[in-house]
Amino acid sequence: MHLYNITLQPPTAALQAIVGNFSGARQQEIIISHGTRLELLRPDPQTGKVTTVISSDVFGSIRTLAVFRLTGGTKDYAILGSDSGRIVILDYDPKTSSFVKVHQETFGKSGARRIVPGQYLAVDPKGRSVMISAMEKSKLVYVLNRDASANLTISSPLEAHKANAIIHHIVGLDVGFENPMFAALEVDYTESDQDPTGEAFAQTEKMLTYYELDLGLNHVVRKWSEPTDKRANLLVQVPGGQVATSERFDGPSGVLICCEDHIIYRHMDSPQHRVPIPRRKHPMGDSDRGLIITAAVMHKMKGAFFFLLQSEDGDLYKVTIEHENEEVQALKIKYFDTVPVASSLCILKSGFLFVASEFGNHYLYQFQKLGDDDDEPEWSSASYSGNGMADPFSPLPHVFFRPHPLDNLALADELESLAPIIDSKVLNILPRSDAPQIFTACGRGARSSLRILRHGMEVEESVSSDLPGIPNAVWTTKRTEEDPYDSYIILSFVNGTLVLSIGETIEEVQDTGFLSSAPTLAVQQIGADALLQVHPGGIRHVLSDRRVNEWKVPAGLSIVNATTNKRQVVVALSSAELVYFELDLDGQLNEYQDRKAMGSTVLAMSVGEVPEGRMRTPYLAVGCEDQTVRIISLDPESTLEVISLQALTAPPSAICIADMLDAGINKSQPTMFVNIGLQNGVLLRTVLDPMTGQLTDTRTRFLGTKPIKLLRVMIQGNPAMLALSSRTWLNYTYQNMVHFSPLIYDTLDYAWSFSAELSPEGLIGITGSVLRIFQVNKLGIPLKQDSIPLSYTPRKFVPHPENNYFYVIEGDNRVYSDEVVAAKVDALRRKGERIDEDVLNLPAEQFGRPAAPDGTWGSLIRIIDPIEAKTLNTIPLDNNEAAFSVAIVPFAARNNEFHLVVGTAADTHVSPRTTRSGYLRTYKFTQDGAGLELLHKTEITDVPTSLLAFQGRLAAGIGKALSIYDIGKKKLLRKVESKVASAIISLTTQGSRIVIGDMQESVMFATYKGAENRLLVFADDNQPRWISAHTMLDYNTVVAGDRFGNIFVNRLDSKISDQVDDDPTGAGILHEKNQYMGAPHKTKMLAHFHVGDLVTSVHKVAMVAGGRDVILYTCLHGTIGILVPFASKEDVDFISTLEQHLRTEQSSLVGRDQLSWRGYYVPVKAVVDGDLCETFTKLSAQKQSSIAGELDRTIGEVLKKLEQLRVTSSGF
């Protein structure tokens, strides 16, 4: 077995974000780290919309990011710390739209290790040096400078190590142009290590240490070290240094230390200031719970600066410092607004705040005001004795604020993110869909959602109106070449033509010069200011002064097909002859003296657009009934001569010549594609050689069941093509690559470009007798997401086998459920306390739920109709129970009637894992599945982590034990139990075999022997693994993912499998000798691959109608990928060799070796990295041809093979 890994949806979780002028232009961009991928985003300051400029895999793990700019420079660089043991400086090159490695310095071993730097980065604000630090002991400082030709240089590393020290955070100090300084939060554990009593540990202090880089002596010294608050977790740089033009100081320098419940201002040789972190004034607030700051950003304006700090609840605080030169007078804090909890906050100079959310979608907010003149209370260090530091060891009294909806910020844009995906299913249940949908349970807490992912692009409809009849075609046209927008919509009916004018309203007009009594075949704005209409009886050339020149067809004939551009017209007559017209310099249409006899009825024709500065396009493509396509010359030297011919497998229904930029084929100029749609729904895409007119590099794709229509349109200023069949497809250029995606929209009968003031980039189409105007805004996004909101974090969900409803179990620890909140508020009211209703009723999805002690759970069962995308019912769980597993079981004892079994546990603590009692709740379906009725609850001893329907009974993984239950009248009856594992987390079955996924003991094969009522484990893995999801590929093969980002395939020897099945009592297994403290037999590993993201679900599924089965997996960070089995040995050899060449050509952006990254824990086996192979399209033409030469193929053949592997397996 050999597999090919393709990522369908790259990770969307944002681990860190930085902002800077990376392209060197005046505009700021954002770089986001998605863990294994870097993405550059460009927010538009006018519209507030965010677009992706570039996204690239780094084939490594990014641990930290920082932005820096050399003194006096105009361009920012990104510095990366990763698991490669190297520091890397990246530059964004706008010309090639790619990240370029400027420097790569090796300092340690690869892998994310405790004492190898790469975890923290701190940059000197003046861009002179950078410190990279490990979690423990090691810190290195690099000096950054320019050489004589203004290129960036990097020095050898200078050490600033401190043995036996754990580092919590580092930051660069702003000291102006004095020697660069760095501050670190460190804890020395030397004494704690030696002292067995634990006293030294209790007395250990957290130190704030300053390191100074002496630029003259070129070494680093520890300048100053003082103890600070034990709960300090974050340092924030405070502006400092003198302004060059005056005596004034930018700020007092130093750091803000964020601690639990407090913010402290600290600097060498100056007094400290401390303020409390304000808390929410909530009726359910827990005053004993500490509050920490998790994200912070500092923003400098002319002559001022402020900080935005975010607490773990999502509340933003504005912190300001009042200072006189270098002396601090007061530290002030006030509540600002509440946004989702962020992993990074970025403030842009154009007045936006980018929130890279820890979980869920990312947001761009616009500042409405800075919260200076509102009546929000502000707390100052000056109002406490000793500036809040009178007694540094005792906490300041709590202060409170009232949270409110967004006031200082307004939402400008939202970036969809699937992270975290907790469970998923792949099913085809939506109506009129030929490909399956991916249903994912995403998110955390009250911002969770169930998302329906469909392959295709979202369409925004602006107009939908009924027409008097059913038209067969639609066009739009401008009056003159210079017009910015279209003036007319032309609709062709079976017996006539209707012309509508586009203005304030759309209304019918008569005096356009168009013939309204016949159907129209083509419309074109021709020359500078004329219009052209082709109808079966001839051609009408309407001049700007409304005079009409008409060319009539010879008697007894009619026009059956036509194609036009700005200067050329070709029509096909019913006698299978072609007539060619060309516009002369006076704006007159001249017919070429000869007519070309084709010898077969013409079914389709196309002529390309006239290239800029040319008189004509030299080629015409004609498709005939004899299943051929001919390329005919329109060159004056050889007019109407056949240049080349291509045979087809079916009669053509449409042809479209389009010039589109595809960097995979030609990076410098657009490629001329001839697209041929066949009557059997297959599209052929061939490349037309502009010099010779020969057709090369043919690629095929099945689009649908109807004959194809092809139309040239404009999308975001670039030429594109619509292909209409039983689905509508769009072929477009995005980031210099050609993409092909279906539109998620009703089937269109005909379509055309549409440009008006309200919709400058629109499309117009007809469906039956309905006229529709719509636009496609989000290019390059392969999956359309529809979201159904949930109340708590989703744990698992199951589809009903008959009515396709979903049953989702949700649960959150440390929150009060709505019912408990209502009861507690009632109790407070009865005591006569005043309740702030506004705060109590704030929406949970924005503000979260009130925090509760550990072991308090909010949980419910939700019934969802995925077709209508709505919640039908919710069943809250009482008695502090939380749901952990769910299954739909047809109990044989009840005539195979379906029951829903939900595994719950009461008063559960996550770490260490304890529970008062577990339960199996059995529900009966009511209202055709839209309701549930509790039959009974069965008490069990541990948390039920996995449930499965097994041979008309229930198999349950309860802690370490696998049990089988049958249904009884008052409870479920346990029939057999076997203690098999450390903690069962997933179960699958075929026949009498159950495959068990264990939390730390990998995958086991068990069998149930009904005659003896025995459950026996007969095979397991030869290495322990922390399984997170698994599924069976066949009776003997299982694919599983583990918590460390690996996916692997294990197979059991078929002889052993048959032997176990032929043993009716299981006595043979019982008497066999166990191997390595485990089962008597071991599985063999067939394939292994490191995905780089925690796998949360695995499915065996066919993604394309009639296609082969593939393995689809989803991961925690929002990754969706597939593993495709290779069909032939030849493919394996070809793609594996290509992968080897690319490993040497394409070095990782973070300097990680791709082979060792993909074999992080176990060497990669029998899996080819498709993401690496697809970077072949981005190589330079020279490298492409040298690799293709080594493979004995042309570049086109390599590209075709890569596209075929992706398209035939996934449809993407």
Distinctive features:
five-stranded antiparallel beta sheet; 12 helices; single chain; globular; five-stranded mixed beta sheet; 1212 residues; 91 strands; 8% helix; mainly beta
In short:
The protein has 1212 residues and is mainly β. 8% of the residues lie in helices and 48% in strands. Strands 88-89-90-1-91 form a 5-stranded mixed β-sheet. Strands 10, 11, 12, 13 and 14 form a 5-stranded antiparallel β-sheet that branches.
Structure description:
- The protein has 1212 residues and is mainly β.
- A five-stranded mixed beta sheet has the order 88-89-90-1-91. Strands 10, 11, 12, 13 and 14 form a five-stranded antiparallel beta sheet that branches.
- A hairpin with a 4-residue loop joins strand 89 (1110-1115) and strand 90 (1120-1125).
- It is globular, with a radius of gyration of 34 Å.
- The chain starts with a strand and ends with a helix.
